[in-house]
Amino acid sequence: QVQLVESGGGLVPSGGSLRLSCKASGRFLGIIDTTWYRQAPENERDMIAISTATGTIQYADSVKGRFTISTDNAKGTTYLQMDDLKPEDTGVYSCKARILSDDGFLTYWGQGTQVTVST
Description:
- 0% of the residues lie in helices and 61% in strands.
- It has strands spanning 3-7, 10-13, 18-25, 30-39, 45-52, 57-59, 67-72, 77-82, 91-101, 104-109, 113-118.
- A hairpin with a 2-residue loop joins strand 9 and strand 10.
- The relative contact order is 0.33.
- By secondary structure, the chain is mainly β.
- It is elongated.
């Protein structure tokens, strides 16, 4: 059974930094891609960043130049480094990963981690 666990959220002042982690555990063969999402209060869940095993990386316009996604395959972990945080970055951050296991290609979600940026 594969699980995704996020960590690294918290309260940070405007202009500060946080690094979120999305760690896959259990038995699997590889991570195909990982996507970070953000859901602000009363808003829809938006894609923030995606990283694929082939090296493709994309960011939402709102975070380009401030956020960096990276993956450590040996640790089964994808990171989201968030710099120059703004109050509008506040929300619940979730990761989604497509993972290859003995059961084939399956999609997993983490439980989410709260990020709050104060003014």
